[in-house]
Amino acid sequence: MKNIMIVEDNLPIRTLFKTVLTQSGYKVIAMNDAKSALDHYSNQTHLIISDVDMPGHDGVWLLEQVRKMNPQQKFILTSANQHSIRIKYAKEIGIQCFIEKPFSIKDFVKTVDQCVNDLIN
């Protein structure tokens, strides 16, 4: 079973992601902020899916911190603002995928499956 960490400050979205990915066969840990996610991060995490815009540290900060510990960590960012400077920077330093909100759950799960199974570099 592959381990996925969800980092999302919006409780209904976080709960939806966790439910859908658990039903898809993943072991999911869900965190509500980047600092908590970093505190609970382990190299056993196959994929991190993080919102960009959160109170405190954002998802790009989390990406930077995790990459210092594990440069190969797979990472997906989500946001409603695909044109943000932070997202452009995240793409430059190497996220596997960016998913713009809103999106369909079917497409979300498909993207996660592709990323976990190395179909997205």
Question: How would you portray this structure in words?
Answer:
The chain is of the alpha/beta class. It has a single domain, classed as Rossmann fold (3-Layer(aba) Sandwich). It has helices at residues 11-23, 34-40, 59-69, 85-93, 105-116; strands spanning 3-7, 27-31, 47-51, 74-79, 97-100. It has a 5-stranded parallel sheet, sandwiched between helices. The protein is globular, with a radius of gyration of 13 Å.
What oligomeric state best describes the polypeptide chains here? Answer: single chain
Q: Span between N and C termini? A: 21 Å
CATH architectural type: 3-Layer(aba) Sandwich
What would you give as the CATH superfamily? Answer: Response regulator
Rounded to an integer in angstroms, the radius of gyration calculated over CA atoms is: 13 Å
Shape: globular
Stretches where pLDDT is under 50 for at least 5 consecutive residues are none
Give the helix/strand layout.
Layout: E1 3-7, H1 11-23, E2 27-31, H2 34-40, E3 47-51, H3 59-69, E4 74-79, H4 85-93, E5 97-100, H5 105-116
Parallel strand pairs: 1-2, 1-3, 3-4, 4-5
Helix pairs in contact: 2-3
For this entry, give a set of tags.
121 residues; alpha/beta; Rossmann fold; globular
Q: Could you give a short description of this structure?
A:
The protein contains five helices and five strands; from the N terminus they run βαβαβαβαβα.
